[in-house]
């Protein structure tokens, strides 16, 4: 469980620098250059992510804290579907979701993490999904506050962008739920 915790600290810590010490971040970017900063940021994030993956696998087999009811798998599937659509909204241009919520990827992380907390009961699950949920809540609030202070607005979208966003999200969710989740995680979320 220690490797998982350290990986989370590194990964989420790197993703929290802009929240906690934005001035320090700007000074590093000025000193190192944007590309060097991005490279170091990416390397540290990849290291943290690898530690999370290995640490999560190693931490399995502990006594569950709670036994979720079977129907929670369906609630999780719905929340993860919403998460995929929100993540798509962060990248598909011309949708009306991003202007409305500001940071759809962070809302997607919240939906994904909350869903997985509902259907998993081991201590490693609480650590992994709880950490991501807490981080996403804090980062979303900080990002929205930063946007308001800077007067950031996102271009308005329309029905075509919304349709494409939903289609990309649903297809991505279906591929992951029916094929990749079992192959990569070892669990078939929908039975």
In words, what does this structure look like?
The protein is an all-alpha fold and 191 residues long. The chain has 2 domains: 1-59; 63-191, no CATH class. Helix content is 78%, strand content 0%. The protein contains 9 helices and no strands. The chain has helices at residues 2-14, 17-20, 22-32, 34-58, 72-91, 97-101, 104-119, 123-150, 159-185. Helix 1 runs parallel beside helix 8 and helix 5 (72-91) packs antiparallel against helix 7 (104-119). The protein is globular, with a radius of gyration of 18 Å. The chain starts with a helix and ends in a 6-residue tail after the last helix.
Descriptors for this entry?
single chain, 191 residues, mainly alpha, 2 domains, 9 helices
The coarse overall form would be globular
Oligomer classification: single chain
Q: What is the overall pLDDT average?
A: 95
What is the count of DSSP helices, taking H or I runs of 4+ residues?
9
Secondary-structure element string = HHHHHHHHH
**Unreliable runs:** none
Structural class: mainly alpha
The overall number of domains is 2
How much of the sequence is in beta strands? under 5%
Beta strand count: 0
State the end-to-end CA separation: 27 Å
- Main sheet makeup: none
What is the CA-atom radius of gyration, in angstroms?
18 Å
Summarize the amount of helix as a percent range.
Answer: over 70%
């Amino acid at each position: 469980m220690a490797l998982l915790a350290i990986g989370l600290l590194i990964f989420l810590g790197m993703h929290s620098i802009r929240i906690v010490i934005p001035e320090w971040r700007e000074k590093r970017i000025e000193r190192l250059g944007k590309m060097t900063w991005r490279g170091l940021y990416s390397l540290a994030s990849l290291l943290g992510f690898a530690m999370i993956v290995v640490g999560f696998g190693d931490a399995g087999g502990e006594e569950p804290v709670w036994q979720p009811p079977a129907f929670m798998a369906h609630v999780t599937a719905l929340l993860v579907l919403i998460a995929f659509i929100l993540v798509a909204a962060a990248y598909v241009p011309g949708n009306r979701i991003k202007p409305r919520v500001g940071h759809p990827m962070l809302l997607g992380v919240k939906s994904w993490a909350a869903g997985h907390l509902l259907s998993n009961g081991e201590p490693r699950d609480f650590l992994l999904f709880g950490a991501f949920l807490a981080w996403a809540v804090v980062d979303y609030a900080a990002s929205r506050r930063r946007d308001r202070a800077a007067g950031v607005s996102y271009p308005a979208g329309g029905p075509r962008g919304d349709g494409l966003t939903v289609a990309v999200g649903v297809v991505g969710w279906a591929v992951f739920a029916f094929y990749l989740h079992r192959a990569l995680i070892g669990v078939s979320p929908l039975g």
